[in-house]
Amino acid sequence: MPELPEVETIANGVDRRVRGDRIVKAWFSHYREPFKTPPAAMAETLPGLRISRVRRVGKHIVIDLAAKKQLLVHLGMTGRLLVAAPEVPVPAHTHAILQLGSGRELRFVDPRRFGRLELLEGAAFAGPGSEPLTIGIDEFVALFRGRKLAIKAALLHQSLLHGVGNIYADESLFRAKIRPTRAAGRLNRERLGRLQKALRTVLEAAIRAGGSSVSDYVDADGEAGFFQIQHRVYGREGLPCRVCGTPIRRIVLGGRGTHFCPRCQT
DNA sequence: CTGACATCCTGACGGC
DNA sequence: TGCCGTCAGGATGTCA
Known about the structure:
By secondary structure, this protein is α+β, with helices and mostly antiparallel strands. The chain contains seven helices and ten strands. It folds into two domains: about 5-120, N-terminal domain of MutM-like DNA repair proteins; about 135-260, Orthogonal Bundle (Helicase, Ruva Protein, domain 3), CATH 1.10.8.50. It has helices at about 5-20, 40-45, 135-145, 150-155, 165-175, 190-210, 215-220; strands at about 25-30, 50-55, 60-65, 70-75, 80-85, 95-100, 105-110, 115-120, 250-255, 255-260. Strands 1-6-7-5 form a four-stranded antiparallel sheet. The chain has a four-stranded antiparallel sheet with strand order 2-3-4-8, with helices on one face. Strands 9-10 form a two-stranded antiparallel ribbon. The longest helix is centred in the last third of the chain and has 23 residues, at about 190-210. The model is unreliable at about 220-225 (pLDDT under 50). It binds a DNA duplex through loops.
């Protein structure tokens, strides 16, 4: 489940490998998804364009191209963006192959097709919400003002903060000692301040943890799973809280599995 | 507008 | 062992 740290790490890894390279040819699968831009239009436009940079915005990978064009990649649940030599076998569920001037290929693989590919022309992509790593406390507090939905659901709302997914929402709420079901608009500034700091801390720790293993995701066949920092609550239902020993509880909130310590988080 | 919920999709996993 | 049902969730669309 790629969230901000995984997307950041993958974008950086791909950037190092393809920056400055030129797209020679573009191939796409015949499925309707994961394409937001018709594949025929992308196959027409992309060849000849140089890749100036690959970066992350929210959970999107932005491939900056010449002529103010941008290829947007969203990995969804199961998407992978791989850099491979042509002789490396093409994995099942490959939906895009960009042949590069260097001889390498940039491949997009996505079994469940929850991911998205989109070609933008003109305006720089800014993402749907605010950046969790750089947002200030005042803006952070303002995001949730007056909102009645649960803070966990609010954290997942990409038009508020983009890049936060289910795992780091749970992990940051645990570190901030906030119950996921609390109404977002009823949390005071002090608690929201803790949440903002916890969110940034856990995301940055995950980015650091991912730095060393990016090759497995970008260069290899993508068989390896995503790296993880040690989770304190996510996926630990029934196991003792690492702080107080109380069994971690799991509920469904906003249709998503939600994990918390009933004693530490209030 | 806000918020709740269904939908898409395949692979992993557990039970029998 | 092997089959089958269930579950996972990011973003979007629909509805109240």
